């Protein structure tokens, strides 16, 4: 079936208000749903405000578990991803990355709304290969209610989602490369474009639409990227280059992580003159990342793999006002499991985060990874705690005691797997308490087999522990 651009964009007037009322009908709000395994939803509606510095998918299971205990968890997410289809979207639309925000919204959403068909739709990706016109035609088809992808989704919710896709098709810059594009990301981008930039309005709407049982917000609402200086002098530009997703990853420990406005994709313009600027997989133009190294003898030698010839410049940007307010009002602040540098530490880089954490009168808890995190390269738990404290003190002040920044580290001495060790003495020397608790699932064979981060922590045990440690203000 052929659908023209005009037909695709000529949708209903404004179904947003009606769709958001789906969540307010009798018996369908948060208080009407039984909690998953613990307490009533009425208790969860008044549960503690636990703030997570997070990113990626490491907290998906924990997010599900939390919704049965509190509907007030706050997930401050890193919007710095630079790999895959996200890189393409960010090159054409100078905006924060939204993939991790999308994943967390769905993880916290009411399953009565976020049904399997809706989740599948938001996760739908266009083909990595194929003609530009064919893929764009597919997007226009998806903007029509006649497309079978909308079957099984509440009609009012579907109307709002299609409206956001039509906004994307209307406002996106010409020549957008659809190869490998994630539909859920395009929906959020449509709201971003419709409101003139800024993720606040579209995140607020999707939170209501999906009856999200918590709060999801970016740590900054700005178009920024991550860069890392390694101890061997190498500087890597782009989150995907640091975390090793779609790129080799780090080969030496990280000396410094920082934010930059320098783009991993050069000037972001197509080079082959085609309609989508395609040059390589997913239409990524030119180099996806660059590397610079210090030369021998102390002189600086810049060597870029194409594109930029000078190292990225650090950008000093403030934490968003929304994120700062949530930190100040927290009943507990958690530095959780996940990619240590690109998911956790990256959230601490904006100015004001350290001061906000220091000023919050609540417990501050670090739950380190159990298993292998390629970003840590053998760092002990105490080493990671020291990195967190140093990052927070850069903003809060060098003399701020650990008790105001990070007072408890949760480990599992029985089942936990910490490749660099725990180093209890090192933690105590920093003024950090160690809480040994059964928060990691036992591995078959006594833990002798290789493991990764995914699935290692017991989500229910971690959720119980954090809600128990929270101190309501």
Automatic annotation (TrEMBL):
Protein known as: GAK system CofD-like protein
Record GO terms (molecular function): LPPG:FO 2-phospho-L-lactate transferase activity
Residue segments, region Disordered: 261-291
Pfam families assigned to the protein according to its UniProt record, in alphabetical order: CofD
Lineage: Bacteria, Pseudomonadati, Thermodesulfobacteriota, Desulfovibrionia, Desulfovibrionales
CDD domains: YvcK_like
InterPro entries xref list: CofD (IPR002882), CofD-like_dom_sf (IPR038136)
Residue stretches of biased makeup (Low complexity): 278-287
């Amino acid at each position: 079936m052929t659908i023209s651009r005009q037909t695709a964009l000529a949708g209903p007037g404004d179904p947003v208000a009606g769709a958001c009322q789906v969540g307010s009908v009798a018996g369908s709000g948060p208080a009407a749903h039984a909690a998953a395994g613990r307490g009533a939803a009425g208790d969860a509606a008044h549960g503690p405000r636990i703030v997570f510095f997070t990113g990626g998918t490491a907290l998906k299971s924990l997010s599900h578990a939390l919704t049965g205990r509190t509907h007030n968890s706050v997930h401050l997410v890193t919007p710095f991803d630079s790999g895959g289809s996200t890189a393409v979207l960010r090159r054409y639309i100078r905006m924060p990355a939204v993939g991790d925000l999308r994943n967390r919204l769905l993880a916290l959403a009411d399953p009565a709304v976020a049904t399997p068909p809706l989740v599948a739709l938001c996760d739908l990706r266009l083909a990595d290969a194929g003609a530009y016109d064919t893929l764009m035609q597919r997007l226009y088809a998806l903007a029509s209610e006649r497309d079978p992808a909308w079957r099984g989704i509440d009609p009012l919710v579907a109307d709002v989602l299609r409206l956001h896709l039509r906004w994307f098709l209307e406002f996106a810059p010409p020549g957008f490369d659809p190869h490998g594009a994630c539909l859920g990301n395009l929906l959020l981008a449509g709201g971003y474009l419709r409101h003139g930039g800024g993720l606040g309005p579209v995140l607020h709407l999707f939170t209501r639409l999906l009856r999200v049982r918590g709060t999801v917000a970016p740590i900054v609402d700005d178009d920024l990227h991550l860069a890392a200086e390694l101890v061997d002098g190498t500087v890597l530009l782009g989150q995907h280059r640091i975390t090793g997703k779609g790129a080799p990853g780090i080969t030496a420990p990280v000396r410094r992580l920082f934010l930059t406005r320098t783009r991993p994709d050069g000037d972001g313009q197509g080079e082959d003159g085609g309609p989508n600027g395609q040059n390589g997989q997913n239409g990524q133009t030119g180099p996806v990342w660059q590397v610079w190294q210090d030369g021998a003898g102390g002189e600086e030698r810049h060597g870029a793999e194409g594109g930029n010839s000078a190292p990225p410049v650090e950008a000093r940007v403030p934490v968003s006002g929304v994120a700062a307010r949530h930190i100040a009002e927290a009943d507990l602040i958690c530095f959780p499991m996940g990619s240590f540098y690109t998911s956790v530490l990256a959230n601490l880089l904006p100015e004001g985060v350290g001061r906000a954490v220091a000023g919050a009168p609540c417990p501050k808890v670090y739950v380190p990874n159990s298993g292998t995190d390629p970003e840590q390269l053998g760092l002990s738990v105490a080493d990671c705690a020291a990195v967190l404290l140093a990052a927070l003190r850069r903003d809060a002040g060098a003399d701020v005691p650990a008790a105001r920044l990070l007072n408890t580290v949760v480990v599992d001495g029985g089942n936990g797997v910490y490749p660099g060790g725990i180093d209890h003495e090192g933690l105590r020397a920093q003024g950090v308490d160690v809480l040994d608790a059964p928060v990691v699932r036992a591995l078959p064979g006594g833990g002798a087999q290789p493991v990764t981060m995914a699935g290692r922590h017991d989500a229910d045990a971690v959720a119980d522990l954090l809600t128990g440690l929270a101190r309501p203000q």
